[in-house]
Amino acid sequence: MPVTNGRGLERFIGFPYDLHRGDPLWVPQLRMDVRTLLTPGKNPFFEHAEAQYFLAVRDGRPVGRIAAIKNDAHNREHGDRVGFYGFFECVNEQAVANALFDAAARWLSDKDFRVMRGPMNPSVNDDCGLLVAGFDTPPTIMMPHNPPYYVALHQGYGFTKAKDLIAFASPEGDPPERITRAVNVIAQRKGITLRPLNMKRFKEEVELVKALYNQAWERNWGFVPLTNAEIDHLAKQLKPIVVPDLVCFAERKGQVIGFAVALPDFNVALKHNPSGRIWGIPKILWYARRIHRCRIPLLGTLKEYRGAGVDAMMYHWIWTKGAIHGYHWGEGGWILEDNAPMVNAALQLSFRPYKTYRVYDKPL
Predict the structure, then answer these.
(1) How distant, in Å, are the alpha carbons of 71, 73, 81, 345 from that of 78?
(2) Ranges of the chain whose pLDDT falls below 50
(3) Are strands 247-252 and 120-121 parallel, antiparallel or unpaired?
(4) Domains of the chain
(5) C-alpha angle 62/65/66, rounded to 5°?
(6) Which residues have CB under 8 Å from 272's CB, separation 6+?
(7) What does the alpha-carbon distance between residue 23 and residue 157 come to, in Å, rounded to a whole number?
(8) How buried is residue 228: exposed, middle or buried, by Cβ count under 10 Å (0-12/13-18/19+)?
(9) Res 225: pLDDT
(10) Is 81 in a helix, a strand, or coil?
């Protein structure tokens, strides 16, 4: 049944908290944040997109949910007829999953899409992909988690792999000595300097990110440019948890040529508020002081500096500054499986692949 009112949306939001209550690795996000993500007028994604949410209900109780998503920004960028699905949650029954996928497929077909791709929650710039390997560790901030049976439900419906996204785990301890030496050589030879985020100039720093982001990530598979409004929205959401030393800008001759962002893994604190309700915030803040993990979701340079070692310099910065602030483990990624330069850079830094997320396609 389509979600058509506020009560339906609350049931849509609430379903995963019941479904995954027994999963020790699932992390309950704050319901108010999920509501913002799903609501046109609150999430600037919907300035270029629309979505229809569906609930599967049996005997008056939800047993599954899905969103069908039309992302005009993707279609403009790639010139294809790909529609998306996301926010998929389901009991372990193929018939229920099929009914959900069918509902999304019908909505997308009516809009003349030729392919259904996902999961995107709601886009490639948010959490995306289905976890297909690495079920034994918890998800980091802004990454999805799902039970293994979701893979069988997707295969049972006839989805096929479009692309895998790889998450990398950092090694323990200090950066290898060879990396430290190499970074110093690159810095001296090329005249590249690094600096942290300046919180006193936060607005101006966000403007720098806007200028760089869409240039640094262009032409990646599935890439959709972020609008100014989307970057502002993301910055506002992340500002309370940002550690300035874990965000670095690479500069050469006064020009910013790259940036990297590492975020404290706030999932460590969210874990302690199983209901996702607002009254759990004091407990979340208490546990937030004990976060020793971080995630590097963004790291990129201008095209002419790719392969020049700037990425290694920024990884090294986050690694060493993170250790000073008590962060002893980090996740890098995700990285597209066939993005050889980034995959090789991670491997050379002794990061290892530890989770795989899959984006699926199905012709409509």
Answers:
(1) 11, 9, 9, 27
(2) none
(3) unpaired
(4) 6-163 (3.40.630.30), 169-357 (3.40.630.30)
(5) 165
(6) 280, 283, 284, 286, 287
(7) 24
(8) exposed
(9) 84
(10) coil
- Based on the number of CB atoms within 10 Å of its own CB, is 324 exposed (0-12), middle (13-18) or buried (19 or more)? exposed
What is the spatial distance between Cα 257 and Cα 310, in angstroms, rounded to a whole number? 9
What pLDDT does 269 receive?
94
Q: What DSSP letter does each residue of 180-203 carry, written as one string?
A: HHHHHHHHHHHTEEEEE--GGGHH
CA pair distance 341, 304, nearest whole angstrom? 14
Question: Residue 218 in 3-state DSSP?
Answer: coil
Q: What are phi and psi of 195, to 5 degrees?
A: -145, 155
pTM passes above 0.70: yes
Residue 267: how many other CB atoms lie within 10 Å: 22
CA 87, CA 65: separation in Å to the nearest integer? 7
Residue type, 87: F
Closest CA to 205 of 177, 235, 161: 235
d(CA 26, CA 137): 10
How many Å apart are CA 354 and CA 166, to the nearest integer?
Answer: 8
Question: What pLDDT is recorded for position 268?
Answer: 95
Distance, CA of 117 to CA of 338 (rounded, Å): 18
The answer to whether residues 321 and 314 touch, using CB atoms and an 8 Å cutoff, is no
- Tell me the pLDDT tens digit for each residue of 217-248: 767 788 888 888 999 998 999 999 999 999 99
Token pair, residue 92, equals 């372990």
Q: How far apart are CA 185 and CA 179, in angstroms?
A: 10
